Amino acid sequence: MPIIDPRTGEALTAPLDQPSATSDAPPAQPGTQAGENAATGEVRREDVILDADASNIQQVLEASMQVPFLLGCWAPGSESCQTLMPILEKLALEYRGAFVLARLDVEANAEIAGQLGVRSVPDVKLVSQGGLVDGFQGTLPEKELREWLGRYFQPPEDAPASPEELADAALEAGDPAAAREIYQTLVEQYPEHYAYQVSLARTLVAQGLGDDARGVLDNLPPEERDAAPARGVRASIDFGEQALPPADIEALGERDDSEARFQRALRHIADGSYEAGLEGLLRLMQSDRSYNDDAARKTLLQVFDALGAEHPLTVTYRRKLFAQLY
């Protein structure tokens, strides 16, 4: 049975994988969200999450004239779908009816999936006013999924922290073991999201496990292994082996000679505080260019190479270095 386009009243003649004419505008949101209790702001699961099939897909498209729908197309045997769908369900509840999640099992509804233009799963389509606004295929990590939704919906004020934010907070609090555990879980969930493997290596460096971190980086595909984020972590490992331990840096006390300043800069770089390290090296170069056979300038160039030519700090401090030299 053909699906009727609610905008025209005619049979859907093109797959729902082409943005509608109004796709550049965020979906309209009614005063009271779908399924939301106006007094309490609470939503019921059954009001914001439903299973779509031949019996209700037409109603889903027609209801999208009033409230946006996320059409989550999935298959029971897909591990990627098993990872993504629970996150979509959690966000549908969290967003309190700003959109409704309609789950479509493409194996049980192959004809509908074909009419909607689903070619692989997971396939997520944002439908509003009866037409496609945006969509993506494959699995997005929770942080990126939240960013994608943020293009169209106001994030809830009480939104919980993402796993990445929790890991960053743990690192800032001096608990790299907790951050490592989070990223190990993310790596297992998203094995092809290589940024998580780089972040895992960074937590290993913070724990003093440089060889383990190198092992993680060495297993990346060549294009990821040679990219700036991975090179930056390698720089932390290499400089960490050159720099004095934190206790020895603290023992330097008030010393302000060239050796002490150089060691403090190396420690900053090893800890990932690149800007502080680059600034320290630049100042050392200004005050004592001859120190240790021009070590400050040579180290600056090593950091530039590690961060990559396009990194904002490379651009800024290469300019400063050039101004000082010429």
* Total DSSP E strands: 5
Overall body shape = elongated
User: How large, in whole angstroms, is the Cα Rg?
Assistant: 26 Å
Order of helices and strands: HEHEHEHEEHHHHHHHHHHHH
Summing up helix and strand content along with how strands pair, one would put the structural category as alpha/beta
Unreliable stretches (pLDDT < 50, length at least 5) are: 27-32
Helix content: 40-55%
What does the main sheet amount to? 5 strands, mixed
Strand content: 5-15%
The end-to-end span amounts to 75 Å
The number of helices is 16
CATH class of the largest domain: Alpha Beta
CATH architecture name of the largest domain:
3-Layer(aba) Sandwich
What would a concise description of this structure say?
The protein has helices spanning 45-48, 57-63, 79-94, 110-115, 142-149, 163-172, 176-189, 194-206, 210-218, 222-225, 228-242, 246-251, 258-270, 274-287, 295-307, 312-325, and strands spanning 49-52, 69-74, 100-105, 123-128, 131-137.
Q: How would you explain this protein's 3D organization?
A:
The protein has 3 domains: 160 residues, Glutaredoxin (3-Layer(aba) Sandwich); 64 residues, Alpha Horseshoe (Serine Threonine Protein Phosphatase 5, Tetratricopeptide repeat); 84 residues, Serine Threonine Protein Phosphatase 5, Tetratricopeptide repeat. The protein has a 5-stranded mixed beta sheet with strand order 1-3-2-4-5, sandwiched between helices. The N and C termini lie far apart (75 Å). By secondary structure, it is of the alpha/beta class. It is built from 16 helices and 5 strands. 51% of the residues lie in helices and 9% in strands. α8 runs parallel beside α11 and α13 packs antiparallel against α14. β2, α3 and β3 form a beta-alpha-beta unit. 35% of the residues are buried. About 2% of the residues have low confidence.
